[in-house]
Amino acid sequence: xxxxxxxxxxxxxxxxxxxVAIVAAAFAVPSLADGEPLEDGSLPCxxxxxxxxxxxxxxxxxxxxxASTEMTLACGSTVAYYGxxxxxxxxxxxxxxxxxxxxxxxxxxxxxxxxxxGKIAPRVTTGGGDTTEDRxxxxxxxxxxxxxxxxxxxxxxxxxxxGVLDSGIDATHPxxxxxxxxxxxxxxxxxxxxxxxxxxxxxTSPHGTHVAGIIAAAADGKGITGVAPGVRLASVKVVDDDxxxxxxxxxxxxxxxxxxxxxxxxxxxxxxxxxxxxxxGEEHVVYEAVRRAADHATxxxxxxxxxxxxxxxxxxxxxxxxxxxxxxxxxxxxNCRVLPAGLxxxxxxxxxxxxxxxxxxxxxxxxxxxxxxxxxxxxxxxxVLSTVPGGYAQVCGTSxxxxxxxxxxxxxxxxxxxxxxxxxxxxxxxxxxxxxxxxDYDLDGxxxxxxxxxxxxxxxSFYGHGLVDALAAVTP
Length: 476
Prior knowledge:
The structure is a single chain. This protein is of the alpha/beta class. The chain contains 13 helices and 19 strands. Helix content is about 25%, strand content about 15%. Mean pLDDT is about 90; it is low at about 1-35 and about 115-125. It is globular, with a radius of gyration of 24 Å.
């Protein structure tokens, strides 16, 4: 169906029509209504279409003015442009926006998701329990990484800022109200940072608040205590209300972390619309944009820590076929990685249960996993206790393992002020406790191995360099 103007168009001479087309193209508002090519060969815009948000790649050195002009000429409106990495965010109601710029340069997660029902909205979880009661005795995870012993030496420095790229942090929670720095927090759901409190506060999801508590819940004898209770937190909202993590939000979040002096950023998610993003075809746009943003953050002194995901998958050898959100089958190979955990320079974290064995849900992979941390084991019902709006809740996942590592990095940054990303990474991995591959990984007793661990004790596919150690982080 073609968009028609509600006002009858005047008939123009051929010469006049050409003049109109040239002027319209110059101002990126071609308006002929029948969808046929204009005299200069360009296609008219379709402003009546549903608005979708796009990531757009540009050549290094492209100015903001040039990028905005190109996106406008393609029938889009500029939302943000990150000149440091030459990545833009635009909206357009014209379904041919990506075709005008090239499918290897422009991509919309919203457009891909339009053909399916989307994710199931997460169940709203409100925590129970008295926030004045001391519940640290239930934190088996802190004892496992010796965080309780570390606190006798250091709880971390207020000079260290930790970014929580997630669904928002409840800054009114008694365990977090002192930790959250509102001047360094922002919402990134649109692809452009919005520092207003409403933009970075949680709405329906408790996930970000749970992650934040593991990192820096106050050591005040009430509620729980985080790994590094003395550091500051920045709430950077990149997860929307239905649990979707769009790439433009992640690019925005990583760029915000880089611009605001964060020592470490926690990423307990994978970038949609695919669990693994392949560096080819239209997926290249997502892969390359997130890679550029992560590399830029690293260059600005931000150490990114990321969850390995809960897909029980060998991330080092992705293979087979999987259906995408648009229903199309995709073939996985070595070009496909979980983002951002699979990127170079990002600390990828697997999860262990209370017994110190890789949790059944945790992804793994030789050369991908850097370290491991407590994430809980659902089969035993023993998950990680942390803060949620209204109280506390137990949750399992690599999303819980990653913030333990982030907290240890925050302690390292406190103990070694001025250390580079590379130095902090070496300190983290050198201080980890090696865990050998299990001799038998038959979790359900069915007589079949549930996953195969490769490597040796100091470095393997299940645990990387080993279990992180908070006490080692604060010991000179």
